[in-house]
Amino acid sequence: MCPLLFQANKKGEIPLHLAARYGHSKVVTVLIDCAKALPTDPESGVTEAKKMLRITTEEQATALHEAARHRRSHVVEILTKEDRPELSYSANVHGETPLYIAASSWGQEQEKVIDEILANCISVLDYGGPNGRTALHAASAVGDHVEVLLECDASAAYIAETEKKRTALHIAAIRGCIDAMKGIVSGCPACCELVDNRGWNALHYAVASKRSIVFKECLRIPELAILETEEDDKGTRPSI
After folding, report:
1. Which of 30, 56, 176, 191 has its CA 20 to 30 Å from the CA of residue 213?
2. Phi, psi torsion values for 205, nearest 5 degrees
3. Cβ(36)–Cβ(47) below 8 Å
4. What phi, psi does 231 have (nearest 5°)?
């Protein structure tokens, strides 16, 4: 049965990908144990189990990508612990790392997924999404997981997208995620000074959210309130 461990379907998926997707943690463990029983490659020194964990599909997704996307926290725990400490992030064809995928949605199970990845992997806040976005950008869009990501690497708050140059704070503001904004400002107050490619600061984005409550809450935050007199590239100040 061992040769079947690496048998891929038309999408490039091996059994481990499918077991991870559907959350079959016992099957995942059995597949990894079977791979461990195979001889190690004498040239590379890499075990067959390590090779299996890193095999990608046509979309360059590993089993960890699948587990993260489908919120399989138990599987994520198994996969990350098996490949540590060497495991770093690889992006799929869409430019998404497992952490970016996990941070893109919210929920108790998703929080467990993020915790496992952060606990067991390196390079946790790499440029994990399309257009230069990080996992913090993704978390800010849904208003969750922000604090734990900042605790891991506060520098992510200062990273802007490649094209529009929006930071995680900008994203949180346009989405009206007030708690996420407070978390970012509390941990990284200097990031409030950053503007996008139009010269918009976070307060401009709060106005663009078209939610007066968001703008009013921003004015309660001293670091954001002082931006009310700042002009964008067209000389427009943020106001409702």
Report:
1. 191
2. -70, -35
3. yes
4. -100, 150
Per-residue CA distances from 2 to 10, 45, 188, 225 (Å)? 20, 19, 50, 63
CB 109 within 8 Å of CB 71: yes
CA dihedral 133, 78, 49, 127 (to 10 degrees): 10
Q: How many residues does the chain have?
A: 240
CA pair distance 196, 161, nearest whole angstrom: 9
pTM score above 0.70? yes
Instruction: Tell me the C-alpha distance between 170 and 19, whole Å.
Output: 38
- Give DSSP secondary structure letters for 9-73: -TTS--HHHHHHHTT-HHHHHHHHHHHHTSPPPTTT---HHHHHHH---TT---HHHHHHHTT-H
Helix (H, G, I), strand (E, B) or coil at 140: helix
Q: Nearest-CA neighbor of 166 among 204, 124, 126, 218? A: 204
Q: Which of 132, 128, 179 is nearest to 159 (CA)?
A: 132
